[in-house]
Design brief:
The structure holds two protein chains of two kinds.
Chain A: E1 3-7, E2 10-12, E3 18-25, E4 33-39, E5 45-51, E6 57-59, E7 67-72, E8 77-82, E9 91-99, E10 101-105, E11 109-113
Parallel strand pairs in A: 2-11
Antiparallel strand pairs in A: 1-3, 3-8, 4-5, 4-9, 5-6, 7-8, 9-10, 9-11
Chain B: E1 4-7, E2 10-13, E3 19-25, E4 30-31, E5 36-37, E6 39-44, E7 51-55, E8 59-60, E9 68-73, E10 76-81, E11 90-96, E12 108-112
Parallel strand pairs in B: 2-12
Antiparallel strand pairs in B: 1-3, 3-10, 4-5, 6-7, 6-11, 7-8, 9-10, 11-12
Classes of the chains: A mainly beta, B mainly beta.
């Protein structure tokens, strides 16, 4: 059974950093492409980043230069390193497994950026 | 970037009646080499992650009731719930996975009338 479990969220001050983790089971993250999608409180889904099976990455313009997606194959885990956080980054962050379309989602990790 | 729009923003439908949601992409998401539309639909209920309903614009995900169907091609797509059930109350999103960034529509909220 495929499972995705996010961790690492919490309260951080503006300008601070946080690293989210997404631990996967039931499949190999290196064989799929994996994404982060976020949802601000009461808002819609916003695509954040992707790491393809060949290791290439892409980030939304809203986070480019501040966020970095990566993976650790032996831990079967993907990460989202978030630096220089802003209030507008406050959201639930979901990791998702893609077979082109997003077939599996984690339960999400809440990140709150506030002083 | 490909911009996704949805209409209406919300709709209320009587139990057993049809609900129709439209999605439009700013560029075609039809890949000519395989004739596939890179368009998916997701359902999200309060406090839950999104759930995949439809992919390739019209292929129903395993386990999804057959009252859900997707249609359309190129830039114009539709999600239809043929006979609305109480458990279908949710927000529905379309997403293009044709080109990064893999953008989502703003969502359509479906309620019971």
């Amino acid at each position: 059974e495929v499972q995705l479990v996010e961790s690492g969220g919490g309260l951080v001050q503006p300008g601070g950093s946080l690293r989210l983790s997404c631990s996967a089971s039931g499949f190999a993250v290196s064989d799929n492409y994996m994404s982060w999608v976020r949802q601000a409180p009461g808002k819609g889904l916003e695509w954040v980043s992707v790491i393809f099976s060949d290791g290439s990455t892409y980030h939304a313009d809203s986070v480019k230069g501040r966020f970095t997606i990566s993976r650790h194959n032996s831990k079967n885990t993907i990460y989202l390193q978030m630096n220089n956080l802003r209030a507008e980054d406050t959201a639930v962050y979901y990791c998702a497994r893609a077979l082109d379309y997003y077939i599996n989602w984690g339960q999400g990790s809440l990140v709150t950026v506030s002083s | 970037d490909i911009v996704m729009t949805q209409s209406p923003d919300s709709l209320a439908v009587s139990l057993g009646e049809r609900a129709t949601i439209n999605c439009k992409s700013s560029q075609s998401v039809l890949y000519s080499s395989n004739n596939k539309n890179y368009l998916a639909w997701y359902q999200q209920k309060p406090g839950q992650p999104p759930k995949l309903l439809i992919y390739w614009a019209s292929t129903r995900e395993s386990g999804v009731p057959d009252r859900f169907s997707g249609s359309g091609s190129g830039t114009d797509f539709t999600l239809t719930i043929s006979s609305l059930q109480a458990e279908d109350v949710a927000v529905y999103y379309c997403q293009q996975y044709y080109r990064t960034p893999f953008t989502f529509g703003p969502g359509t909220k479906v309620d019971i009338k």
